[in-house]
Specification:
mainly beta; single chain; 5-stranded antiparallel β-sheet
Amino acid sequence: MDDLTALADEHLAAARASAHGRSAHRLLHQEPLRQTVIALTAGTVLDEHNAPAAASLLVLRGRVRLTAASGDVEVGAGGLQPVPRERHGLAALEDAVVLLTTVNE
């Protein structure tokens, strides 16, 4: 079993060392379910992209803004947010680590 605290530390350090300000690690890939740890440094943005059939975002560290046409939502550490079923993006308001859970059809 993966230790989320250790993975958050590891990938936040990797994101800070990366020119792109991000690092990711897929924890689970059992179709249709996927879980990925994503670390982003403050100010880093994941551009708008299509949504999977179902998804949620659990913020492990920091604070992020989930952006979508239906409205933006800020989520802090410990917050769990469903991902809208529309094009959306993600911006790190401070150094952050999230656990993205998706179900793909």
